[in-house]
Amino acid sequence: MSNQRMRSGGRMVVDSFLQHGVEQVFCVPGESYLDILDALVDVSNRITLVSARQEGGAAYMAEAYGKLTGKPGVCLVTRSPGACNASIAIHTAYQDGSPMVVLVGQIRRNFWGRGSFQEIDYVPMFSPMTKWVAQVERTEDLPYYMAQAFRIAQEGRPGPVVLALPEDMLAAMSGAADMPVQEPARVAPDADKMSQMADMLAKAERPMIYVGGAGWTPEGKKGIEEFAAAHQIPVCVGFRRLDAFNHDHPNFAGEMGPPAAPDLVKRMKEADVVLVVGTRLGEHATQGYTLFDWPDPKQKLIHVLQDARDFGRVFHPALAIQADLNKFVAAANALPTSTTAARDSRVKQARKEYEANLDPSNSPKGKVDLGQCMLQLNDLMTDDAIVTGDAGHHTGWFQRFMKFSGRRRFMGPVSGAMGYAVPAAVMAKIVDPKRMAIGLVGDGGFGMTGNEVSTAIAHNVAPIIIVFNNGMLGSIRAWQELSYPGRVSGTGLVNPDYVQLMKAHGAFGITVRATEEFAPAFRAAQASGKFAVIDLYMDPEQITTRITLSGMREASLRRKAEREKSGA
Ligand SMILES: Cc1ncc(C[n+]2csc(CCOP(=O)(O)OP(=O)(O)O)c2C)c(N)n1
Ligand SMILES: [Mg+2]
To answer: Do residues 143 and 16 make contact, with C-beta atoms less than 8 angstroms apart?
Structure first.
């Protein structure tokens, strides 16, 4: 240790960033981690410090970075106020399986346990929503904790790690050396289980593949395309995992989220073998747990996951295969193939149904035909566009009609957390400025994190944000109409004039009130070269792609009347 140079804790953290190839760090500064901020000054040519306007935005940026690149997104936040704000994205990273390393500045060690200013014990606070959370007590241990944090965030099912770093520990000096970067272990599938899978698929008449989850590499995605084609099996993707499978592939059959096409839901229910790769089969992945019988589905489930603890949490798999998803795909492609003419025609039929579902003519209409706008967007966006989504009912429009193929990417909150799309799009444009970045967000979601427009402007990047403006928290309004029809409570929104708002920011804003205005508005937004908001006025009636808001209310009232009549 004697020949090792003395460094502060903050510098050890930053040296570890360099070791792990970190190029962007997302933060809101705090007095609790000044030493890290100071050390970043000396590496500003290698690491871009993105200082966001709120920790929710900063942490969403880091989470979305993890989804986009597969590498841990790094976020720095201050003690309790910063950590509390960031927690929405930490939970999202946990549910969505996104690699993320969050460093929280902590109070000084000698203040500990006295209810000091902004004191929180992060271990109990973050344990239920992280893969690992720890407080680093000694400066000389920092290299170890940092190396572990980066490994754990990526290993198995990726996810968030939180390290709490006391302020005085960061400022103290130590001669401890860096730890070597630790390669995350990648588990290969068991050969016996793979041959059992081959047998099950060879016998299957109505197989389906269901892909989703996190941790895919481009090779893994390509490999599952080859596998599906070789075995002639239709493929659907999980909720908000739109880019998990190439939409132009002849085997692609659609997204299996809550707004899935009825034909696709039926097809899954009627399948005899379902190969589920990466998706954990939670509520939104299974039509509220109705897609399969509980606990033993009549379809034979082959469930492939990185972490064994997620098997059988709800549905019992006939065959559970624990493996890295990409290693699984490579092994699967080495198996003998099994196809029949009947299977081939089922693939074609599923594809036909998927294509029929892209027709918006029966969708609720206002002055703006939202389905048409989404189809136009498919042609307007580049082949390598990065699209980010939010939470809310407007998401049903792009989840049904938008197409992801080629290098296009989609990142959305599988966790259902609002306020994701704007920070995620800002991050995408900072990380990859040459690619088009489009954020799709409701007026509610924009109200939560739209302030990150300032971060985009500070970094001179110009994502295009489309605000689905229905003047309400539409999703909750829809639930109100389903459970308490006609009784609206707290779900109306009074919105600013987005064009004026953007003007005040030095950004670009444009309003769309009719379908034919959409494409010119998009082109104008693109041509502006500025952060752009397209204020897409939609009719509140367009609550889903299949039913109007009043249709929803009337159906609920009818059900209620029937219940009352039958005395139930
Ligand atoms: C941070 C957060 N707060 C509250 C909710 C509950 N919630 C889910 S969707 C929704 C409304 C979304 O409104 P908006 O963004 O306008 O989209 P819309 O449903 O109108 O399309 C709310 C409040 C949530 N998911 N996330
Ligand atoms: Mg809304």
So the answer is: yes
CA dist list (Å): 560 to 477, 483, 567: 18, 9, 10
Check residue 3 and give its pLDDT. 55
DSSP bridge pairs for 8: 173
pLDDT digits (tens, 9 = 90+) for 109-166: 999 999 999 999 999 999 999 999 999 999 999 999 999 999 999 999 999 999 999 9
- Cα torsion through 465, 468, 473, 478, rounded to 10: -140
Nearest to residue 278, comparing CAs of 209, 197, 378?
209
Cα of 396 vs centre of ligand 1, distance in Å, is: 13
Task: Answer yes or no: is the C-beta of 153 below 6 A from any ligand 1 atom.
Answer: no
Residues 26-42 as b or e (16 or more Cβ within 10 Å = b): bbbbbebbebbbebbee
* Residue 99, token pair as written in the block: 């690699």
Report how far apart, in Å, the C-alpha atoms of 43 and of each of 47, 188, 226 are: 6, 38, 43
> Can you give the pLDDT at residue 1?
46
Which of these, 291, 549, 255, 212, lies nearest to 400 by C-alpha position?
255
* Beta strands 7-8; 173-174: pairing state: antiparallel
pTM for the full model?
Answer: 0.98
Which residue has the least CA distance to atom 25 on ligand 1? Answer: 417
pLDDT of residue 462: 98
- State the amino acid at position 321 in one-letter form: I
| Ligand 1 proximity of 391 Cβ (cutoff 6 Å) | yes
Ligand 1 close to Cβ of residue 447 (< 6 A):
no
Query: How far, in Å, are 74, 133, 135, 153, 168 from residue 124 at the CA level?
Result: 21, 9, 11, 18, 22
Residue 567's pLDDT is what?
Answer: 83
Kindly report the number of other CB atoms within 10 A of residue 561's CB atom. 10
Query: Do residues 545 and 259 lie in contact, with contact meaning Cβ atoms separated by under 8 Å?
Result: yes
Distances from the Cα of 87 to the Cαs of 102, 122, 133, 153, 448, in angstroms?
A: 10, 11, 13, 16, 15
- pLDDT at site 2: 47
Q: Which two tokens stand for residue 152?
A: 């754990």
Distance CA 410, CA 417 (A): 16
Q: What is the largest CA-CA distance in the chain?
A: 86
Question: What count of other Cβ atoms lies within 10 Å of the Cβ of residue 459?
Answer: 18
Low-confidence ranges of the chain (pLDDT < 70): 1-3, 568
Q: How far, in Å, is the centroid of ligand 2 from the Cα of 450?
A: 14
- Angstrom distance (rounded) from CA 428 to CA 434: 10
Q: How far is the CA of 52 from the centre of ligand 1 (A)?
A: 22
